[in-house]
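Batch job 17 of 40 flagged for manual review because the log was empty.
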Amino acid sequence: MNRFLLCILGVIFIGSFNVATVFSQTDFGKISGNFQMEAQYYNPDSIIGAPPVAEKILSNSFANIIYKKGNFTAGMRYESYRNALLGYPEGFSNQSGIAYRFAQFSSDEFDVTVGNFFEQFGTGMIFRSYENRPLGFDNAMEGVRVKFRPTYGLEMTGLIGKNRLYFGLGQGIVRGFNVDANVGDMFKDLLPADMVLKIGGSAVSKFENPSSATLNLPGNVLATSARVNFIYDAFSLESEFAYKVNDPTDFNNSTFNPGNGAFLQASYVGEGYGFTFGAKRIDNMDMRSQRSSLLFETAMNFLPPLTKVHTRRLPTLYPYATQNNGEFGIQGDAFFVIPEDAPLGLGGLNGTTVNVNYSEIHGLDTVATGDLRYEADFGVDFFQGDKLYFRDFNIDIETYLSKKVKINFGYIGITYDQGVIESPGKSMLNAHTIYGDLSYTLARNNTIRFEAQHMSVSHKDLNKVQPINGSWVMGLVEYSLAPSFFLSAWNEYNYGNKDEALRQNYYGSQFIYVKESNRLTFGYSRQRAGILCVGGVCRFVPASNGFSLSLTGSF
């Protein structure tokens, strides 16, 4: 089957350069795609820990080619890492080839895919196959997926295959089944017109030959989940519960405990205000199709985060990484708009938007009950603060002072256990960030923006202070001539570093040009080391010094 698919896609790929226009306008079908190239020139910088790079230039590139005619779709992605950018998973380095290819037939009742595909069941707690290119994360499935829709509002999905592992496949075989039902669509007169009720259930298993001479490892590992989503008028509720049988690995300290997870999120949106509350409990829910995998290789599932993703530069030093082996967390988020006619001018020109967010993550209280087994309390005592991993309180305020002037300012307070989130031996710290920016419209589509940030950092254990974890100050200026030209320059200064030699400036500039669906970015930066996280999944990014070039586009 793979050779057959490659032959078809090879013909499509070669022919697309000569006949794409003809295909797009005739019965032959339509060809589309997109591409991306990231390259960086590296200078060694021993002061900030930027290592020398023998090749000088490293790059990551890919291109997708998609062919579609009627109910049939086929495509492929070519990837090249010569060599991979610093910090990217080493398994990609010096690799290139067709890493993703598929053929798909879709109708009202059936959807059949052979080859590679991405899929998610519910929140992803027991199964999610997806990619995140900035992280170097790609656990695409290779196999067969079938979707069946016997009636309106009901969809069943079955799949079997293996997870991608760089340019190969993981050892384990993954099997999955999912059903989603929209009660209102299936039974038209059962619910009020403004009510939505969705229920679903999933089962996923993996098979991997036991490979331990000392432990009686299971060959088959099963996980199940059930979920309910409810919407009524302005109120919504999302919930899911998951369970998996024991699967001892190096990641969970070879425990024979089963795993479980619960996720709950409720929200309400009114006129000029809204709030969201979420809670999550995870116990031994690391799932991967190959036990010997490292970091996030061959991950089978995704545990939805309950912390805010900050876009301000300095707080990104301390993003939260989901602890798959055990955590209990809550998050609350609220926004409201102060009307423009409020006293003391608090409403600004068109109203002032205030967003308040709070999240707190704890470890589970566990007690050993035998060899490789333990008991975990269902919840934690937040008021006592036992096993606190992460806490974040932030407030953001945005308003227009005039038609040309917009201001945005706020505060971010983070408590962060480096020893848990990053690596043992590091300390608990508190980081307090204040920020503000001002945007001034010079003319139509012509704007200049100034931003300043300050982050003060204190450590619970001064003997464990890491060199980069001092206090910081940051400034940025950005000019935009929308929609095509953007220019920015910035500087971060680590003035509070314990080591005076490491009180360094991290500066950079960037130029962006956009035309239609194409984007060119060129810049220079002295980049500090840090943790890059997306959705609770993280990787370490080393320090670097040099020029970078990015080109993306679609057709």
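Reviewer: the log was empty due to a logging misconfiguration, but the result itself is present. The two ends are 28 Å apart (CA to CA). Unflagging and moving on to job 18.
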